[in-house]
Design brief:
Length: 593
């Protein structure tokens, strides 16, 4: 006999309160991503592409979501990703049943169509599940029009999007709340929902079984074995995150979200749904350290394509389709608590010298694996020319601040020139090596402190954790006294409780001005490893990789005291540096020192 759920323990699905960031999981297929809260509510999805307007924007105070959850309020939640895939299995336990909801964005992905798969299964007992689907394109501005049910499929339109839902033929439509339905399932039973949001007018068959099989096969072929690396499960998960954030055109977004605050009520929240070339290079280098996998080719292709198109006017960031990043604007939404709504990013107009240095390192890694094609070879020449013309010019730097003579930018350029010099023949290689010596000599004259460590900038004696990135890449060489002295100086000034911060802030001590910066923690592990201190390197690696939420996702920053994530997620370059560490600390790096 089916159990009647106590109405006093039921909760309207229409309510979507925010959660702390560590609790959210992400689904991604390379062309867009969705965020799922622990209660089974998908509260963020842009369609059809990463930088498109959101269809579900409840995450930042807008409208629109897709919920599947137990009607019984008295339940706890958990879940995990299937290994090597961004297939998330949410798990809910009530007093007398165990329910799983398997979620994924279908793969292989199409740029004009997102397909969301949700499979509910009762492991023990019986349950009543409730569904609510309320798409609101344009960050909540638009509602679905003319909903109709035909042959078991719901079909509706809004603006230039078409929405179809399979699996809820008995659902009811409410103009204010969207589609709502209930499903009663017994032990062993499962039920599938398939949601499509598309710009295309065609309507291919949405068969849940076929879509799940194709998605599982796509993930099996996309993520390599990482069993030879340290922390193999986390390393493989990091690779899956990078794959999920990378478009078929090769562009990798910095994160799936916009406007999630780095610090409450300070205006420090940004739109990261774009491809930063620096981050792309970090990911490509991390993958190359493991082997010549698909994501390396994609990173090389996208980076080379942008440099060939724009030359020394290459921007730091683009859309994943290679277009300029739009100017910043607000949407008039409340924003995630502590933040405000913002789309677009001003960094797309900056000059950041280190981008060119990282690109040269990426091209050198591709050459080592014999993956440097003719277009990339032409991009190498253009990149070297750009460094030669602009290395003395102040730039905005990695943190996208005011234009200054940042030490990190110059050392990254030197690292890139030296890496590419080692793979270029004859006069080309000598030219790069000589240019590297010139840049390093002048940087040493301007930016080396009398005590032997590197300054933050030519006019700033403060500590700068970004310097660990070129140090970890071998610039200067590990036997240069400045390397050990800089690493020690940064640890003394910027480390606290085993975590590392970016730089000193005038508006507060470490941990109050901003969170620990996880990219820098992993870079410290790599730099410490480069200096031969394996115990110290593992200490930094293990401490930093603990700074994630239950789904194993990293944001840009970590609030050490509150053990909370800060900023957009999942942050691609943090996952890239974790993978880089896993390859190098295992002693299995496929790249030469």
């Amino acid at each position: 006999m089916e159990r009647k759920t106590d109405s006093a323990r039921e909760e309207p699905v229409a309510s979507c309160p925010p959660w702390v960031l560590r609790e959210y999981a992400v689904l991604a297929d390379g062309e867009r991503g969705a965020l799922v809260d622990p209660r089974g509510r998908i509260v963020w999805l842009c369609a059809p592409r990463w930088h498109s307007d959101a269809v579900f924007s409840t995450l930042i105070g807008g409208s629109g979501y897709f919920a599947v959850e137990p009607a019984d309020r008295w339940h706890v939640w958990g879940g995990a990703y299937e290994e090597g895939a961004l297939i998330r299995v949410n798990r809910w336990v009530t007093p007398d049943c165990v329910i799983e909801c398997r979620d994924a964005l279908a793969m292989p992905a199409a740029p004009d169509r997102v397909v969301l798969l949700r499979r509910m299964r009762v492991r023990r007992g019986q349950t009543l599940l409730r569904m609510r689907l309320d798409p609101r394109p344009g960050f909540g501005v638009h509602r679905m029009r003319r909903p109709r049910l035909q042959d078991g499929t719901w079909d509706a339109e809004a603006e230039d999007l078409r929405v179809r839902l399979v699996g809820a033929p008995d659902a009811s439509w409410d103009p204010e709340l969207g589609l709502h339905a209930e499903f009663r399932l017994r032990e062993g039973q499962q039920h599938d929902l398939v949601l499509e949001v598309a710009t295309a007018s065609d309507a291919p068959r949405l068969d849940a079984g076929e879509l799940w099989r194709a998605t599982e096969q796509a993930w099996r072929g996309a993520v390599p074995d990482c069993s030879a690396l340290v922390a193999p499960r986390d390393a493989r998960h990091a690779y899956a995150v990078l794959r999920g954030l990378t478009s078929a055109a090769g562009g990798m977004v910095a994160a799936a979200t916009t406007s999630l605050p780095e610090r409450a009520n300070t205006g420090r929240n940004y739109d990261y749904r774009y491809a930063w070339l620096r981050d792309q290079c970090y990911a490509g280098l991390a993958v190359a350290a493991h082997g010549p996998h698909e994501l390396l080719d994609g990173a090389v292709h996208f980076t080379a394509e942008r440099i060939l198109a724009d030359g020394d006017k290459t921007r730091p960031a683009y859309t994943v389709t290679g277009e300029p990043v739009p100017d910043e604007r607000t949407l008039g939404l409340p924003g995630y608590p502590g933040g405000n709504d913002r789309v677009g990013n001003h960094a797309g107009q900056q000059f950041q010298l280190d981008t060119f240095g990282e690109a040269l390192q990426l091209f050198a890694a591709a050459a080592h694996h014999d993956r440097l094609d003719k277009d990339a070879e032409r991009a190498v020449s253009i990149t070297v020319d750009a460094v030669e013309r602009h290395w003395e010019q102040p730039d905005a730097g990695i943190w996208e601040l005011e234009n200054r003579w940042w030490t990190h930018s110059r050392l990254c350029a030197v690292a890139g020139l030296r890496k590419i010099a080692a793979v270029l023949p004859g006069a080309q290689g000598r030219r790069c090596a000589e240019l590297a010596d010139t840049v390093l000599a002048e940087t040493r004259r301007r930016c080396l402190h009398p005590r032997g460590h590197w300054r933050r900038a030519a006019d700033d004696d403060g500590p700068e954790a970004a310097l660990l990135v070129p140090l970890a890449r071998g610039c200067p060489a590990p036997d240069d006294p400045s390397v050990a002295r800089t690493r020690a100086f940064l640890e003394e000034r910027l480390a606290q409780d085993g975590y590392l911060y970016r730089f000193d802030h005038e508006d507060g001590p470490l941990g109050e001005a901003e969170g620990a910066f996880l990219l820098c923690g992993f870079a410290m592990a790599l730099a410490t490893h480069r200096l031969g201190d394996q115990v110290g390197a593992f200490r930094w690696f293990e401490r930093t990789r603990a700074a994630c939420g239950p789904p194993g996702l990293f944001a840009e920053e970590y609030d050490v005291r509150q053990r909370q994530l800060r900023g957009n997620l999942p942050q691609a370059f943090v996952h890239a540096l974790l993978l880089d560490c896993a390859a190098h600390l295992s002693g299995a790096s496929a790249l030469p020192d």
